[in-house]
């Protein structure tokens, strides 16, 4: 099987997304996400403790229409914008950050169909995905040894193991990145769309982290998995438009962390207002009336509001960036990536700080397991380690001082 170089086609590619979300669209998907979050809230702690793959939760996403949000209407989707998708991720993260993560990665994997695939591939996969309400997981972790595509007749055999394959075990389709190991196309790095139940795929179920326990991020082993031309999305390269998957996922992280902070603050407020006494040295009647308590809430609320304003601005701008398609320049891509890196820095720190300090104003009883306030801290502490925030600070600082831009990768 010969892989055609699609660099020229990608440079001329048109984006299937254009314009911006209307207030009506944003309101619709916000209310949809809030309804899903309310359903998830009913047993969020119990599900977190059970730590099993969230098949029922993904079905809830499917029934809500959120899985089809960004698929263009012409191909059977809901025709929504990325701003709406990112806001939905944020809303879900206020209640259940694990399911918010699965949804965020699902959108990234749908985006990859456009970033790497031809117009024909996009239409074929989007129509199938929209009709069946597919959930997309992935096996693309770039710090893992690459999966191999071994030439086999008219196709390939997929071999190897990928750790941190978010959503793969509960998805209908898996986005897989793999390198051709031999033949005339040796060394080419391909993106594949592989169905969940393909023979030779084994889901190891070994995700057992402190937080994000229901994000279905376990390892996947591939042994002799047959790959045909129908499974190939396209070649992974460095053309600016095709690399927007990284700025998007970092932007999704910023919204995820913001949502966790908002959820922790709201849960803390609920606990504080329920306390009917005050510290014995305080002159206030209740903890909520104590100026020291009010000071902490005032600081955290103000910092969260600042992060929210930044996230809202960048979310809206992303729709304009992605609409450029193959006309997107490296300079415009880099400028947007730096904006998103700034959000990653402040959302990470505000998220961790809020989820930590909220215990200071809710008292020792809030540390009880049944209260569940720890869920926010465990989730933000786990996911904020995805890639070192210090390197994002360096990325922003080097650009500010010297105009430097980091080399394109699946982390920058």
TrEMBL record:
<dbReference type="InterPro" id="IPR013107">
    <property type="entry name" value="Acyl-CoA_DH_C"/>
</dbReference>
<dbReference type="InterPro" id="IPR036250">
    <property type="entry name" value="AcylCo_DH-like_C"/>
</dbReference>
<keyword id="KW-0560">Oxidoreductase</keyword>
<protein>
    <submittedName>
        <fullName>Acyl-CoA dehydrogenase family protein</fullName>
    </submittedName>
</protein>
<dbReference type="Pfam" id="PF08028">
    <property type="entry name" value="Acyl-CoA_dh_2"/>
</dbReference>
<feature type="domain" description="Acyl-CoA dehydrogenase/oxidase N-terminal">
    <location>
        <begin position="28"/>
        <end position="130"/>
    </location>
</feature>
<dbReference type="InterPro" id="IPR013786">
    <property type="entry name" value="AcylCoA_DH/ox_N"/>
</dbReference>
<dbReference type="InterPro" id="IPR046373">
    <property type="entry name" value="Acyl-CoA_Oxase/DH_mid-dom_sf"/>
</dbReference>
<dbReference type="InterPro" id="IPR009100">
    <property type="entry name" value="AcylCoA_DH/oxidase_NM_dom_sf"/>
</dbReference>
<dbReference type="Pfam" id="PF02771">
    <property type="entry name" value="Acyl-CoA_dh_N"/>
</dbReference>
<feature type="domain" description="Acyl-CoA dehydrogenase C-terminal">
    <location>
        <begin position="252"/>
        <end position="387"/>
    </location>
</feature>
<dbReference type="InterPro" id="IPR037069">
    <property type="entry name" value="AcylCoA_DH/ox_N_sf"/>
</dbReference>
């Amino acid at each position: 099987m010969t892989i055609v170089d699609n660099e020229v086609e990608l440079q001329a590619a048109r984006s299937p997304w254009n314009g911006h979300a209307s207030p009506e669209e944003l309101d619709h998907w916000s209310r949809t996400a809030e309804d899903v979050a309310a359903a998830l809230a009913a047993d969020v702690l119990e599900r977190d403790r059970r730590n099993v793959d969230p098949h029922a939760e993904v079905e809830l996403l499917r029934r809500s229409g959120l899985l089809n949000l960004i698929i263009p209407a012409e191909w059977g989707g809901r025709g929504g914008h990325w701003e709406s998708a990112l806001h939905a991720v944020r809303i879900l993260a206020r209640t259940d950050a694990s399911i918010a993560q699965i949804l965020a990665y699902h959108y990234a994997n749908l985006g990859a169909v456009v970033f790497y695939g031809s117009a024909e591939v996009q239409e074929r996969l989007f129509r199938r995905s929209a009709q069946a309400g597919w959930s997309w997981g992935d096996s693309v972790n770039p710090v893992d040894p690459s999966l191999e595509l071994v030439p086999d007749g008219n196709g390939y055999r997929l071999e190897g193991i990928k750790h941190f394959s978010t959503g793969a075990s509960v998805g209908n389709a898996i986005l897989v990145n793999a390198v051709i190991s031999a033949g005339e196309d040796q060394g080419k790095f391909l993106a594949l769309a592989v169905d969940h139940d393909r023979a030779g795929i084994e889901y190891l179920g070994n995700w057992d982290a402190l937080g994000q326990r229901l994000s279905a991020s376990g390892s996947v082993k591939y042994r002799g998995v047959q790959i045909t031309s129908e499974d190939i999305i396209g070649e992974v390269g460095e053309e600016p438009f095709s690399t927007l998957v990284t700025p998007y996922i970092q932007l999704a992280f910023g919204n995820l962390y913001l949502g966790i902070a908002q959820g922790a603050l709201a849960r803390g407020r609920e606990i504080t207002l329920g306390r009917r006494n005050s510290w014995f040295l305080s002159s206030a009647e209740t903890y909520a009336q104590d100026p020291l308590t009010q000071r902490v809430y005032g600081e955290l609320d103000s910092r969260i509001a600042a992060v929210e304003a930044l996230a809202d601005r960048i979310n809206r701008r992303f729709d304009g960036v992605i609409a450029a398609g193959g006309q997107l320049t490296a300079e415009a891509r880099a400028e947007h990536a730096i904006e998103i890196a700034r959000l990653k820095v402040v959302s990470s720190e505000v998220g961790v700080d809020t989820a930590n300090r909220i215990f200071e104003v809710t008292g020792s009883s809030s540390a009880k397991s049944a209260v569940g306030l720890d869920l926010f801290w465990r989730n933000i502490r786990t996911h904020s380690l995805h890639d070192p925030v210090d390197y994002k600070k360096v990325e922003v600082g080097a650009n500010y001082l010297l105009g430097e831009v980091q080399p394109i990768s699946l982390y920058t």
